[in-house]
Each structure stands twice: as C-alpha cells, then as structure tokens.
UniProtKB/TrEMBL annotation:
Entry protein name: Protein-glutamate methylesterase/protein-glutamine glutaminase
Comment field on protein domains: Contains a C-terminal catalytic domain, and an N-terminal region which modulates catalytic activity.
Catalysed reactions, as listed in the record: L-glutaminyl-[protein] + H2O = L-glutamyl-[protein] + NH4(+); [protein]-L-glutamate 5-O-methyl ester + H2O = L-glutamyl-[protein] + methanol + H(+)
GO cellular component terms given for this protein: cytoplasm
Name of the coding gene: cheB
Superkingdom, taxonomy of origin: Bacteria
Major localization class: cytoplasm
Length: 346
C-alpha cells in the first residue's frame, strides 16, 4: 500500500489495547489511528477515522464482537482481524466470525506467554487484511445439490485454502450431498481450531466432516480436514496419513504436501485451490494436473486474498477459474460417476 495501514483497535481491556497498539506500532507500515473499548465507541471511531483494518475483541460489553462483526459486514464491509482467547468458547466464536467474513484471527496471550510471542504474526495479518477483498454478508450462499447426485466411488477430491478459506469451505461443503466424493482438505489453521472447524462444517454439510486421523480410510461421503500444527496430511493407498515433518512453504499442514501425495495415487482425482496468501499448493496442483487430475481455482473477484489461486493459475495448474458460488456444482460435476477424465498435461 502507498500509505501505512490505518488500524482501529477494539477491545474492552485497556491493557490489551495497549499491548496490541505497542506490537503494531513497531511496524513502520502500520499506523494505529485509534482505539475503542466497545462496539458503540468503535462505530463512532469508524465514521470519524475511516480505518483500513479493525482488530476486534470477541467478548465485550454492550454488544459482543460477533454481533458487531455481523453489522459491519452487512452495512460497511471492511477487513477485520479477530483477537480471541484460546478457550473452547473463544475458538467457536472465532470460527463463527471467520464464517461471517473476518479475514483472520489471532489468540490473546495465554498465561506465561508474552504479548510479543502471542502477537508475533499480528502485524503481518493486519497488512494482509488491508489488501484483502471483503464482501457484504448477504451475498454469500450456496445451494445444496439434489438427491440424484452420485459420485464416482474411486474419485479423490483434494482442496487447499488459507486466508478466507473458512468462509469458502463453508460455502462449498454446505452444498455437498451425503454421497459426495471422498474429500481431503488442507486449510492453514492453528491446531486449536481444526477439530472445532470440522465439527462446524459437519453440521452444515450433507457429508460427514471430521478432523483427519492417521490411517483413516478414504470413503465417499466423507470429508477429512488436516489437523493444524504438528503434521502434514497425505493420502497413501486408500487411507489418510499424518506425517510429522518440517513446514513446507512456511506451513504445516501444507497444501503442496497434500496435493503431491494425491498426484501419486494413480486414480481419478480433482484438485481445487481456494483463497489464500502465498503460493502453497500451486506446484502440487500442477503435479496433480500432470498426473491427469481435473483442477479448479477460485477466481480473483471472489477471493479474500488472490494469492494461492493466482500462483497456481500462472503455473498452468488450473483448468478453470470460477467464482465461489459456482465452485461447488462444478466440483461435484467433475467428481460424478461417468464424468469425463482429463488427460495428463506436459
């Protein structure tokens, strides 16, 4: 950006407002233009200061952060980074916020953890949020597929996502029927979130959505979410494998690791790359295409961050780019019984 990112900090704790301000002010590309103790103060500050990004606490007086976020995304869509506790309740609310349209989230310092350590990536997330694309809440919906659908029982679907992926995956998987293709998903997400995320997706989808466990059989009608933190999700034969290894492209789990493992399967497959910062998944999706996979990418207009899909498209790994509402039916068409197979590309 040509000017420092203007940030408004919204938190009911004066101590937390001071900590977040101190961390962000260390970055010369960020300007903290104001703070607010609750959504009522924040609403006035937004009108007066016109910030580029808001950091928003979850639990506040007068109106909680989730309710305030809904109002923002309906009335004045703008980039929001949630700041939450790592309690179960905090995790659930944060995931709900990401579904509504918050760009990202960071955790407040746990006991014994310094603010600098806890908020080590906050400045980068704020700058990414400033470059992101947000849309009004009411424009996001997906239509469930009717009961006549039948997936190819041998087909494997692999999906990769990062920033903005919570909303995108909810949109896509909520349209999946109970007999969807066996699906593996790597979403860049902390370990504390992935189990709860899988449970939220399970409630929204006709498919059975779970956090992947090592050795789990890949079955139609099931979606397996890569656990965050310590391992990469791979597929081997007809099973999920959790592999302890170094981060790839700065991520663990990595989309490239998942896609490369799918490319080695030698069976019908489709790869999909969704919104996210960076290039993770681009080379892996190309490997899938070279092995004969069909492939789709989310288009720039519907991405929160058009990074990973752009990198894959520029490598020639993406057959078609589609808007988020069009992705679910297109994915299911490619994975359907009797769908034409792709030929390997050079």
């Amino acid at each position: 950006m040509s000017h420092p990112v203007r940030v408004l900090i919204v938190d009911d704790s004066a101590t937390m407002r001071s900590l977040i301000s101190a961390v962000l002010r260390r970055d010369p590309e960020i300007a903290v233009v104001g703070t607010a103790a609750d959504p009522l103060e924040a609403r006035a500050a937004i009108k007066e200061l016109n910030p580029d990004v808001i950091t928003l606490d979850v639990e506040m007086p007068n109106m909680n952060g989730l309710e305030f976020l809904e109002k923002i995304m309906r009335l004045r869509p703008m980039p929001v980074v949630m700041v939450s506790t790592l309690t179960q309740a905090g995790t659930d609310v944060t995931l709900a916020a990401l579904e509504i349209g918050a760009v990202d989230a960071v955790a407040k310092p746990a006991p014994g953890v310094s603010a600098q350590e806890a908020f080590g990536d906050l400045a980068e997330k704020v700058k990414i949020a400033a470059r992101s694309r947000v849309r009004p809440l009411e424009t996001r919906e997906a239509k469930a597929v009717d009961g006549a659908y039948r997936a190819d029982p041998n087909h494997i679907l692999a999906i990769g996502a990062s920033t903005g992926g919570v909303e995108a995956l909810l949109n896509i998987l909520s349209a999946f029927p109970a007999n969807c293709p066996a699906t593996v998903v790597t979403q860049h997400m902390p370990a504390t979130f992935t189990k709860s995320f899988a449970a939220r997706l399970d409630k929204a989808s006709g498919a059975t959505v779970t956090e992947a466990v090592d050795g789990a059989p890949l079955m139609p009608g099931h979606v397996y979410i890569a656990p965050g933190g310590e391992t990469h999700l791979e597929v081997s034969g007809s099973r999920c494998r959790l592999v302890a290894a170094d981060p790839v492209n700065g991520h663990r789990p990595s989309v490239d690791v998942l896609f490369n493992s799918v490319a080695r399967l030698g069976r019908p497959m489709t790869g999909v790359i969704l919104t996210g910062m960076g290039k993770d998944g681009a080379k892996g999706l190309l490997a899938m295409r070279q092995a004969g996979a069909r492939s789709l990418g989310q288009d720039e207009q519907s991405c929160v961050v058009y990074g990973m899909p752009r990198a894959a498209f520029e490598l020639g790994a993406v057959e078609r780019q589609l808007s988020l509402p069009r992705l679910a039916p297109a994915i299911l068409d490619l994975c359907a019984a009797g769908a034409p197979a792709s030929k390997p590309v050079a």
